[in-house]
Amino acid sequence: MQLEVLRMYKQCLRAAEKKPGFRDNVKHEFRKNAAIPKTEVLRLEHLMRQGWRKLQMMQDPFVDGMGRFQK
């Protein structure tokens, strides 16, 4: 699971290079969820599925912005 997360992180950073402002968003999302314990498998799997969908969105040539909710 950990290697899969790292692989997704690298792919997200590569996809974010082509679009302004995406890199900070990617780093923020991964850092925000870095403290999740490895024992919470269901939560990690959910975040992985969400991450793959966001990666596909970033790779779409017609997407030029990404929002982020702040608390």
- Please count the beta strands (DSSP E, at least 2 residues each): 0
Structural class estimated from helices and strands: mainly alpha
- Percent of residues in beta strands: under 5%
Number of helices: 3
Shape: elongated
What does this structure look like?
The protein has 71 residues and is mainly alpha-helical. 65% of the residues lie in helices and 0% in strands. It has 3 helices and no strands. The model has no long low-confidence stretch (mean pLDDT 89).
Main traits of this protein?
65% helix; mainly alpha; 71 residues; 3 helices
Overview in brief:
This protein is an all-alpha fold and 71 residues long. It has helices spanning 2-17, 22-32, 41-59. The model has no long low-confidence stretch (mean pLDDT 89).
Topology, element by element:
Layout: H1 2-17, H2 22-32, H3 41-59
